[in-house]
Design goal:
single chain, 197 residues, mainly alpha, two-stranded antiparallel ribbon, two-stranded antiparallel sheet, 4 strands, 69% helix, 4% strand, elongated
């Protein structure tokens, strides 16, 4: 798995803030899990990447919101065996994909407020990092963004497209999986080991 993550490190833009960069989560080099200033810098560098994607996703129009609510109720009443095509079409519709992507990215962004609270107790901050790891690793967000790109609803330049999906012997995954794992391995796990001693 480390070779896959190394590939991501080479192609993702490095966002450095306060001596920390998102790519520190690829192999753990330089991660200072026990330094608050470093963790804040790391959170800021992750935030920059997430905001970049969030800016590419348009908000739903009022008509799209109304259609989504109405159609969701209709889809819930369908039979999966008999109406699979209709259900698949709903989950691949532009309004559904936009809603999934935008809501997911906004959930990720909201976690940064938790991490950035002044004088936060490290135990509470680590709960916030756990939430960030979960939200970043939530693949429906990234698969929705990918489908929106494939449908020409949003643009991702060639470099972004190349970095978006990481291919390995284990199959394709989204770049966010590596960062989610990095938060666990290089921030949360060392903290828990330290607390257990």
């Amino acid at each position: 798995m480390k070779t896959v993550l190394l590939l991501v490190m080479l192609i993702l833009p490095v966002q450095i803030c306060c001596g920390a960069g998102i790519n520190d989560l690829v192999n753990g080099d330089g991660v200072k899990w026990n330094n608050r200033e470093y963790r804040l810098g790391l959170a800021k560098s992750i935030h920059l990447v997430i905001e970049g994607y969030n800016k590419k996703i348009p908000n739903l129009s009022p008509d799209e919101k109304k259609w989504l609510e109405t159609e969701l109720q209709r889809i819930k009443s369908l039979n999966w065996e008999n109406d699979a095509k209709q259900i698949d079409n709903f989950y691949d519709s532009v309004p559904f994909l936009l809603n999934t992507a935008k809501n997911g990215l906004n959930r990720i962004i909201s976690v940064f407020d938790c991490i950035n609270v002044n004088d936060i107790d490290i135990k509470k901050e680590m709960v916030c990092w756990t939430k960030l790891s979960i939200e970043i690793g939530y693949n429906p967000v990234w698969s929705s963004i990918h489908r929106l790109f494939q449908k020409d609803i949003i643009s991702i330049n060639t470099r972004d497209e190349d970095q978006f999906i990481v291919r390995s012997d284990l199959g394709p995954s989204y770049w966010s999986d590596g960062y989610s794992e990095g938060i666990i391995e290089y921030i949360l796990f060392p903290y828990l080991v330290n607390e257990s001693q």
